Amino acid sequence: MRRQLIATLLIACSTAVICAQEPFPTPITANQDVIAVSFSEFARIPDTDNGQAPRLMFMTAEPGTRRLFVSTMPGKLYSMDYAGKSVTEYIDTNADAWGVRVQSAFNERGVQSFAFHPQFSQAGAPGYGKFYTYIDTANITPAADFESGGERRSHDTVLLEWTAGNAAATTYDGGAARELFRAAQPFPNHNGGQIAFNPLSQPGDADFGLLYIGLADGGSGGDPLNSAQDLAKYFGKILRIDPLGNNSPNGEYGIPASNPFVNDGNASTLGEIYAYGVRNPQRFNWDSQNGRLLLAEIGQNQVEEISLITAGANLGWNVWEGSYRYVKGGVDTSNPRSDAALTWPIVEYDHNDPLFLRQIAVTGLAVYRQSAIPQLTNKLVFGDNPSGELFYVDADVQEATGQAAIRRILLQHGGENKTLLQVIQAKNSEQGKEAAQRADLRFGYGAQGEIFLLNKGDGVIRLLQ
Question: Model-level pTM?
Answer without folding.
Answer: 0.95
